[in-house]
Amino acid sequence: MSVETQKETLGFQTEVKQLLHLMIHSLYSNKEIFLRELISNASDAVDKLRFEALAKPELLEGGAELKIRVSFDKDAKTVTLEDNGIGMSREDAITHLGTIAKSGTADFMKHLTGDQKKDSHLIGQFGVGFYSAFIVADKVDVFSRRAGSAASEGVHWSSKGEGDFEVATIDKAERGTRIVLHLKSGEDEFADGWRLRNIIKKYSDHIALPIELPKEVAATEGEEKPAVEWETVNRASALWTRPRTEIKDEEYQEFYKHIAHDFENPLSWSHNKVEGKLEYSSLLYVPARAPFDLYQREAPKGLKLYVQRVFVMDQAESFLPLYLRFIKGVVDSNDLSLNVSREILQKDPIIDSMKSALTKRVLDMLEKLAKNEPEQYKGFWKNFGQVMKEGPAEDFANKEKIAGLLRFASTLGDDGEQVVGLAEYLARAKEGQDKIYYLTGETYAQVKNSPHLEVFRKKGIEVLLLTDRIDEWLMSYLNDFDGKSFVDVARGDLDLGNLDSEEDKKAAQEVAKAKEGLVERLKTALGESVAEVRVSHRLTDSPAILAIGEQDLGLQMRQILEASGQKVPDSKPIFEFNPAHPLIEKLDNEQSDERFGDLSHILFDQAALAAGDSLKDPAAYVRRLNKLLVELSA
User: Fold this and answer.
1) What span, in angstroms and rounded, lies between the C-alpha atoms of 212 and 230?
2) Cα 472 from Cα 441, distance rounded (Å)
3) Are 286 and 368 in contact (CB under 8 A)?
4) What does residue 140 show for φ and ψ, rounded to 5 degrees?
5) 100 with 13: CB under 8 angstroms?
6) What distances in angstroms separate CA 485 from CA 478, 480, 624, one per listed residue?
7) Could you give the CA distance from residue 91 to residue 97 in angstroms, rounded to a whole number?
8) How many Å apart are CA 258 and CA 497, to the nearest integer?
9) Percent helix, strand, coil in the chain (nearest 5)?
10) What integer pLDDT is reported at residue 125 of this predicted model?
11) Which of 36-45, 199-208, 335-344, 485-494 has the weakest average pLDDT?
């Protein structure tokens, strides 16, 4: 055994300790998963070497035959997995084996619930497959050397899965990594060739390089032990290159888990081969749940890129727009050069063509899911809906298609679930309705009970209720759908078009004319607080509301801009009153200008509160209200 130098003991990162505790205490009911995870990591290491060796052939060190070997020792109760991939330096081992994947450090603990069954779902979201070794092993040794470094720069990492790990420098002649699992008592079943073979065939048959197991043969004369021969036990061909008719659903699912480092099956997938002007294959997956870092802009995203079956890049971001960043998969092109870089990808017209086609393929896949599996699509929307809402602003060419995939809550629902599609909304629209009506707000309770909806309830017109922070911004990019324009029911002078009878319109004009005097008095009383005062066509039960000017920012957008420190343009609301309400009738008959002013401001502040806004001068509101209460009780 090599002499160990520079030996030191280091503590695991806090999140890793918690993770190891979960692993060691029977986190998985399916323990054999550990081999799939270790083989996936080994495959990634070989892919990285293959790519780096394009520019630096010396990294292959004369050994161009890339493979993974799995062996076992029944007597020693060990399972060994070895690859001749890129390998690790001492620093790599400390960084990658002592901490959770870089983007997961702070978030892992935050997501833990204490329920082992629920917490087990987190593992796939944090890219921490290596630690699954501790499901079956009470000690793990890792021997590694980075390709291109001296034999004396090998590293030995060792841990019992408790609070710390040891790391030492060793001599290692071969590049790559060897992992030795010392099996726990009762896990001897894995030190068995037949068992390991079956696990590899089940989970890793799709790995595109040979996975070898030892095959015992009879000893030749004069030898004490039989010679060891190695045999490949997987297909060792890239799954996406095979015909779809030959691939089982289980194989697609296992390949997804390999490339996404996920532990759940995907919701859907699309496998396609394009021939003609462009030649490439793609295999795209929709995950079942959102990764924890979906909204972190610096988080890794993109497809695995292969060029003529040679791995080139792990997160190629140029093949899908940002709003589809949750899509996992591979793209293998015959038209790109092997020395492709991120900079070249961003400028290559071939990439633009592929991006357009792949984007359409993903949207088609989601359309199919929404149509054929509505319950599954409901789950997809809960996980990825807010990201999809970024689409209309980013992808003008597919705006109509994306709009058809959006889901909203509406006045016909009673629980705030976003399940109504725009096509469904239009299918049950009132006869003569040529608009899609919506209302934005902070919470479902606020918008569902908003006074702006009163006339719509009276006439039985459905209104979409938008409560995500992104919704008002989204609607600034959605002008129409299927020829029908969108109308914010809290904005401008509401016109119901054909849904109002000629009698209704004539009566409204007469009332407006009759109340011109009250309008002028209110303008004088409210002064600079309002842009305009007018008789409302929206109200049936409430005395007054505040409407937004056609070109003004809504409350949501104002709050977002203010929170980000940006200057918000000045704007004033439009005060609308319900002439049939008893309070307005009393106000119209009020002779005292001072009392009229107090009552007008109280109504204005109440309308602001009903809209979800904060009062500009809460103390003045309280003072006026108290004054009114004293008068009423006198």
Assistant:
1) 6
2) 9
3) no
4) -130, 130
5) yes
6) 9, 4, 42
7) 10
8) 56
9) 45, 20, 35
10) 47
11) 335-344
Q: What percent of the chain has pLDDT above 90? A: 39
The CA-atom distances, in angstroms, between 283 and each of 64, 326, 388, 402 are 28, 14, 20, 21
Q: Which two tokens stand for residue 65?
A: 């035959």
Q: What is the DSSP string of 499-556?
A: GS-HHHHHHHHHHHHHTHHHHHHHHHHHGGG-SEEEE-SS-SS-SEEEEBPTTSPPHH
Structure tokens that stand for 382 in this block:
């809960």
Please, what is the angle between helix 516-526 and helix 502-514, to 10°?
60
* Residue 461 contacts residue 433 (beta carbons within 8 Å): yes
1-50, pLDDT tens digit by residue? Answer: 467 888 888 887 666 666 666 666 545 557 887 898 899 889 889 988 98
Domain boundaries, the chain: 5-236, 240-374, 383-499, 502-633
Place of tokens 């989970």: 203
Q: Determine the distance from the C-alpha atom of residue 474 to the mean position of all C-alpha atoms in its chain, rounded to a whole number.
A: 17
Distance CA(418)–CA(409), nearest Å, equals 4
Question: From CA 225, how far away is CA 114, in angstroms rounded?
Answer: 50
| Contact (CB, 8 A) for 11 and 163 | yes
Quickly list H helices, 157-227. 193-203
Sheet bearing 303-307, strands edge to edge: 268-274, 280-286, 328-333, 303-307, 310-316
Q: Who's near 391: CB < 8 A, 6+ residues apart?
A: 321, 323, 324, 398, 399, 402
CA distance 159 to 396: 53
Q: Is 366 exposed, middle or buried (0-12, 13-18, 19+ CB in 10 A)?
A: buried
Residue 375 burial class via C-beta count within 10 angstroms: exposed 0-12, middle 13-18, buried 19 and up: exposed
Query: 601: Cβ–Cβ under 8 A, 6 or more apart, which residues?
Result: 525, 526, 529, 620, 621, 624
DSSP string, 342-367: HHHHHH-HHHHHHHHHHHHHHHHHHH
* Beta-carbon contacts of residue 361 (< 8 Å; ≥ 6 apart): 270, 272, 282, 284
The yes or no reply on domain 240-374 and CATH 3.30.70.20 is: no
Rounded Cα–Cα distance for residues 519 and 258 (Å) = 68
- Class of the CATH-defined domain 383-499: alpha beta
The CATH number of domain 5-236 is 3.30.565.10 = yes
Measured between alpha carbons, how far is residue 248 from residues 9, 251, 336, 503 in Å? 46, 5, 30, 65
Buried residues in 198-216 as b, exposed as e (16+ CB within 10 A) = ebbeebbbbbbbbbbbbee
Distance CA 563, CA 542 (A): 31
Residue entry with tokens 């049939």: 580
Q: Which residue has the tokens 């030492």?
A: 168
Q: What pLDDT, on the 0 to 100 scale, is given for residue 106? A: 44
Q: How far is CA 619 from CA 166, 221, 531, 601, 602, in A?
A: 65, 102, 23, 12, 12
User: What does the chain come to in residues?
Assistant: 634
Q: Give the CATH H-level superfamily of domain 502-633.
A: Heat shock protein 90, C-terminal domain (1.20.120.790)
Closest CA to 315 of 324, 305, 307: 305
The tens digit of pLDDT for each residue in 198-224 reads 999 888 888 888 999 998 665 556 566
Residue 457 corresponds to which tokens in the numbers above? Answer: 């309830």
Over residues 371-399, the mean pLDDT reads 94
